[in-house]
Design a protein that fits this description.
globular; 4-stranded mixed sheet; 2,3-Dihydroxybiphenyl 1,2-Dioxygenase, domain 1; alpha/beta; single chain; about 20% helix
């Protein structure tokens, strides 16, 4: 038997609002939406289309209360600091979860408080494999 991850689910009290943040952050598209759920998928025809798991934002009554047990790691294709600044402009904020100053990633939280990391840009050697 083979399994494939179809979607990563993110709980929210306002799925449409948090989906808007991630839609702008990732450049993804809404493919399904009602008052209780919003689905984002990679741009149609992109290399990620049909490969990357969807993001499904589902309405829940409670707000976020503790650190995420699962989070997204985002790899920018340009300067890390520029991406962090862009995400801050969209409503994300830097957070300290005890990562320390020596790490190469930036820990952030989306407007709902869900942590995610912005990784460093890969070097040309790393991209070459």
């Amino acid at each position: 038997m083979t399994l494939r991850i179809q979607a990563t689910n993110i709980d929210s009290q306002d799925p449409s609002a948090i989906a808007s943040f991630w839609e702008q952050a990732l450049g993804w598209r809404r493919t399904e939406e009602d008052e209780d759920e919003v689905v984002l998928e990679p741009p149609a025809g992109s290399p990620e289309d049909g490969v990357a798991p969807d993001l499904l934002f589902a309405r829940v009554p409670e707000g976020k209360q503790v650190k995420n047990r699962l989070h997204l790691d985002l790899r920018p294709d340009r300067e890390q600091a520029a991406e962090v600044a862009r995400l801050e402009d969209l409503g994300a904020r830097r957070v300290d979860i005890g990562q320390g100053p020596e790490v190469t990633w930036v820990v952030m939280a989306d407007p709902d408080g869900n942590e995610f990391c912005v990784l460093r840009v890969l070097t040309p050697e790393e991209l070459a494999g």
